[in-house]
Amino acid sequence: MAQKKSPRIPLELHQIKAYEFYQKRLASGKEGNEIDDWQQAKEYLSQHPRAILAWNLKMPYRGGKRLIKRLLLSLQSLVRVAWKLLIFPFWLFQQIPGLFAREDKDSRTFAIDVVKTIISALGLIATLLAGIGLIVNYFNSQAEMQLTQQRLITERFSKAVEQIGSGKEEVVIGGIYSLERIAKDSPKDQWTIMEVLTSYIRKNSPIPSNKRQLKPEGEEREKTPEKLPSVSIPVQAALTVIGRRKGDNLAETTDSNKIKILDLSRTNLRGANLNRANLNGANLIGANLNGAFLEEANLDGANLDGANLNGASLDGAYLRGAFLMGAKLNGANLNGANLIGANLIGAKLIEADLEEANLIGANLVGAFLIEADLEEANLNGAYLNRASLDGAYLRGAFLIGANLNRADLDGAYLRGANLDGANLNRANLRGAFLIGAEGLNPEQIKSACSWEKAIYTEAKWDEDKQLWVAADREANQREIDKLKRDKNSDPPNLIDCNPHSAP
């Protein structure tokens, strides 16, 4: 006897049942992912066809109810008009015998005209009723077409999910791009598809627990870990689909229960191509983006705390309000990147390229910017307390109102930098190149530490020592002596330059 074919599973019912399994999994503390929940829901519904039958029986009722609500107002006015038109001919019809009973010619002529009017009115009513019938048929056909489309989408979705669970790379890639097509055809299912794809990436490209993230150098010295592999072709395909989506439903809502967040935390995305990708608000905590391409990517509000972005290309990327606490960006290219209000506390930006980057109001407390290129970068109002800027290149940088309290500017190049109103209290100016710095007054200089060892005249690069030195030491000493003689600029209290003292 042939096995009875199981009924098609409606997508909405499938989603509801998968969510129920997801809630049960969370309550029980079991591990799993969205794909497993989807498969369990499919197996359950396949074994319980009556649940599908009950759902399908209710669908016409739901569709009919919505249709009635839409037509009610328009039908109400049409019924009123039709009723009046129906009553009027009958009223006229009642007057006809009396009109024909009269002997005068005018009454008989009027009676004939009344009959003609009744016939015309009945024709108009018939036309109106036919029009109403056409409207009802149109809405019914639209509802039926939507149901058909939904069934087709359900079938396509189920097949695509099965494909990405395949062991064959080409089948997986086909399933991923099928999901992208479904997301375009059915916007209401877009977020479900994004969750399936992010779940696939977390499952197939995780950071193994035995591979440690990079550690800081020196006292905070980085140890080179075993290299993780670059992203696979299917994972890259999934990232491409996620990155080029056209926004999310409710993505801009202020309701915290409805905000959609892409979860790519602790995933290995080494060398991934995410140029111009839409990763707004994404969760990339602890992700490995070593050597990744993120040029002009939208990472506004994204959480990249502890992420590894060493050597990544973020040229022109948008990182407004992004979280990058403790992130590794050593040697990264952030040329022209927008980091307004970004949180970079303790971030590692050693030898990073931040030329013309916008860091207005950014929090760089304790950040490592050793030998970083910050030429013409905008750091107005930035927090650089205790930041390490040893040998940093800050030519023409904007540091208006920046907080450089206890920052280490040893050997930093500040020619043409604007330090108007900047807080240099207890900052280390040893070897700092200050000639041509704008908005810098003697009071600011003397509030810093080791200002007597800064460079105030033309300098040259010492290849042996790998630092800037005064080209004319005597001329530089004369500038230092001049500052010392200016007692009006002396700080009211002795500056505590002990690095271990309280802030």
Automatic annotation (TrEMBL):
Mitochondrion listed as a keyword: no
A Pfam match: Pentapeptide
Record region (Disordered): 207-229, 481-503
Family annotation (InterPro entries): 5peptide_repeat (IPR001646), Pentapeptide-BTB/POZ_domain (IPR051082)
Chain ranges passing through the membrane: 71-94, 114-139
Protein name in the entry: Low-complexity protein
Keywords: Membrane, Transmembrane, Transmembrane helix
UniProt biased composition (Basic and acidic residues): 214-226
